[in-house]
Amino acid sequence: MSAEILTKAKEIAKRWKNKPENIIEMMHDVQNEFNYLPKEILETLSKETTVPIARIYNIATFYNAFSLKPKGKHKICVCMGTPCHALGAPKVVSALERELKIKCGETTEDMQFSLDISGCVGTCGLAPVVIIGDELYGPVGIQGVPKLVNKYKNK
Amino acid sequence: MKSYRLQLMVCAGTGCVSNHSFEIKDALEKEIAKHKLQTEAEVVTTGCNGFCGAGPLVVVQPDGIFYQMLKVSDIPLLVEEHLLKGRPVKKLMYVPPKEEAPIPKMSNIPFFSDQTLVALRNRGMIDPENINDYIARGGYKALAKVLMSMTPDEVLQEIKKSGLRGRGGGGFPTGIKWETCKRIQSDTKYVICNADEGDPGAFMDRSIIEGDPHSVIEGMMIGAYAIQNICEGYIYVRMEYPLAIKRFNIAIEQAKEYGLLGEKIFDTDFNFDIKVRRGAGAFVCGESTALMTSIEGNPGEPRAKYIHTVEKGLWDKPTCLNNVETWTNVPPIILKGAEWFSSIGTGDVTHDAWGGSKGTKVFSLAGKVNNTGLVEVPMGITLRDIIFNIGGGIRDGKKFKAVQTGGPSGGFIPENLINLPVDYEELTKVGSMMGSGGMVVMDEDNCMVDMAKYFLKFTQEESCGKCIPCREGTKRMLDILENITSGKGKEEDLNLLEELSNVIVESSLCALGGSAPNPVLTTLKYFREEYEAHVKDKKCPARVCKQLLTYTIDEKQCVEVGHGCGVCKKNCPDNAIIGEIKKAHHIDQNKCGKCGVCYDVCRFNAIRVE
Question: Which of B367, B210, B447, B6 is nearest to A84 (CA)?
């Protein structure tokens, strides 16, 4: 493991005072920084906080926010709230699957895009909603999907 | 403080921001500078205005002129006509469905005029990232009042008398919760604000935090003072709400700067501090014990509540947890009095805390309704008033079918119960619940079996897996529903669903499992014929369940009206559509993946679904 990553892990632990109860907050920071939870970092966090590594993996697999696999550069999330569902979000997911040629939950081979569904993001007035990175789009129709994806290609 | 002739309140809730309201703000400022109006007109970014379906929004105060669906290219005209020449721009105003004349003033638009604002009292009026705005609207006055002139017991009595009940869904009387927590002997206690608003289709708490974060903090502080021995407060916000987390952190920093959080607040012996914790995408963490376990740094699994959290909660200390909306209601009760609050709503709470539903409730109105957004209404208002007056009726002239309240724990309410008054008990009686306030409207195009399956899939995926009835039971129910919607259902399945539901309700560990079957039970009760159509005739009457559908093209319509435009062929992902331009097209049933794209893209109504 590079010294840089180790320093980063220690820095994140320190940000939360190395306290075991703050482990979820640390993991949030790691996820935001690296887009997934690298094994080496989790091991470092375990040492720094005294939280057993088994517990850390328990947390990582329990909560939807965390991923143990690297995600694409552009994370596409389709909101699956009730209004989005009622207004056709499943069709949008299918359209994205066809466009990206991956299944929901997967990442494209070139690591550009990953496709997931998300819990309600609370912008129901814009249903159906798609979130790409920090940007929120809505209402998204199936015809708008290719254009939306193109916007992020090679970016 | 500087005063301006005009203030332009730009909505900066998540909905409007994603519709580029910040670009609108920049354009406004640029145009104002161009016309040298900087000393007369100020642009303010506010929290969520509520009318999310009409964003981006700008309200020009003091007249309250309401502009909607703005584009950057509209701004030069708006500034020149309204700000410079004093002529409000009609074409940018709101026009009610099926009418022609625009309504200039926000206060005259039915969506706003039929609401009663208590929890949302500051919406659209303040900049949520500026504590001075909150203070200017009477913020922290209630805190000053309790610290300077009321004993903790007096505060508690006031909340009890008001009849305030938990807005997170359970409807537990807030005053009784505080009192029980207060009674337990302990040097260390906690207050928590539950902002893990997980119900799909609910965004009340998000809007409150994004629009008025200080009101939650003030409410928590008043609660902490009344309960006493509180060492800290926690706010647990779900990570899907990044803007809410940001605004809470800003609010806490500003309150600390002003000495409103920290030690010796208002020079009294009252100390209080708040920490923000991010949820990690687990619905079950909205359950109080699971939420506390999560704050402690564990997977959020709930526990059986033989001992209530007010006795042993966070780190086994007495803990008082309330929802965002409940905390927000506290300051106005202190300022205006319990009598004022209990004059709104239904029933009588003077002798029985469960005797009525007092105050207002915020609902997030969404789905197939014309005006989607956030509405705050007095308890006791009918569903019809909410959906048809405030909500402006059903979109595209379709027929109303049902309204879903209470999220995955609630149920579907059919058209014949549309005059039902909204209060805790009435909604429970018909098999649904108040829940946190999600209200999703369904029309004739929604299949009730599909919707029940949707909710069950949600709870099944979110089940933490600790107890068997919820983990296994919901899985089996989902299997049955999958069968029904794919044409493999049997008649006896319907009774089996009911039987399984009853077992899960009776034997689950927490409320997630205990209420998970509600969407299925209510749809079985009110829309049994739809289930029967799926099971007996293998048909989906609302034409939603893919595997029961056949798509065909009405060749006459295709040629005569659409002139064989070929759009369906171009968009079909399965290459199942055959035909040439200007000639009739048809679908190869062997190739058709039943995705419905052709139906959505055809502008000539030539696709038939059976």
Answer: B367
pLDDT for res A2: 77
Residues B456, B501 within the same domain: yes
> Looking at the 3D structure of chain A, how many domains does it have?
2
Domain range enclosing B456: 448-535
Tell me: pLDDT of B158 over 90.
yes
Whether residues B377 and B268 share a domain: the answer is: no
Give tens-digit pLDDT for B578-591. Answer: 999 988 999 999 99
Please, which residues 459-488 of chain B have a Cβ atom closer than 8 Å to chain A? 464
Kindly state whether residue B527 falls inside one of the protein's structural domains.
yes
Cβ within 8 Å, pair A63-B281: yes
Enumerate residues 14 to 33 of chain A having a beta carbon within 8 A of any beta carbon in chain B: 20-25, 27-28
Query: Can you give the pLDDT at residue A113?
Result: 94
Asked if B286 reaches chain A (Cβ–Cβ under 8 Å), the answer is no
Note whether A116 and A142 are same-domain residues.
Answer: yes
Return the bridge partners of A79, or none: A118
| B344 DSSP assignment | S
Overall average pLDDT of the B221-246 stretch? 93
How confident is the prediction for chain A on average, in pLDDT? 91
Q: Do B52 and A85 touch (CB under 8 A)?
A: no
The answer to whether A86 contacts B442, with C-beta atoms less than 8 Å apart, is: yes
Query: What strands lie across the sheet with A74-79, from one edge to the other?
Result: A113-118, A74-79, A130-132, A135-137
Residues 237-256 of B with CB under 8 A from A: 238-242
Phi/psi class of residue B234: alpha, beta or left (left: φ > 0; alpha: ψ in -120 to 50)?
beta
What angle do the packed helices B528-535 and B493-507 form, to 10 degrees? 130
CA proximity to B166, closest of B330, B375, B338: B330
Same domain, B330 and B389: no
CA distance B87 to B83: 8
Answer yes or no: is A68 within a domain: no
CA distance B54 to A11: 44
What integer best gives the mean pLDDT of chain B? 92
For B265, residues 6+ apart whose C-beta sits below 8 A from its C-beta are B143, B147, B221, B259, B271, B272
- Looking at the fold, whether A58 and A78 belong to one and the same domain comes out as no
Cross-chain Cβ contact A120/B240 below 8 Å: yes
Whether A131 maps to a domain, the answer reads yes
* pLDDT above 90: percentage of residues in chain B: 74
CA B331 remoteness from chain centre = 22
Is B544 a domain residue? no
Q: Are residues A112 and A58 in the same domain?
A: no
pLDDT at residue A1, rounded to an integer: 58
pLDDT confidence band for B610 (50 / 70 / 90) = confident
Residues A57 and A78 in one domain: no
CA-CA distance, B229 to B513, in Å (whole number)? 34
Q: How far is CA B522 from CA B422, B432, B463, in A?
A: 17, 7, 20
Residue A138 is predicted with a pLDDT of 83
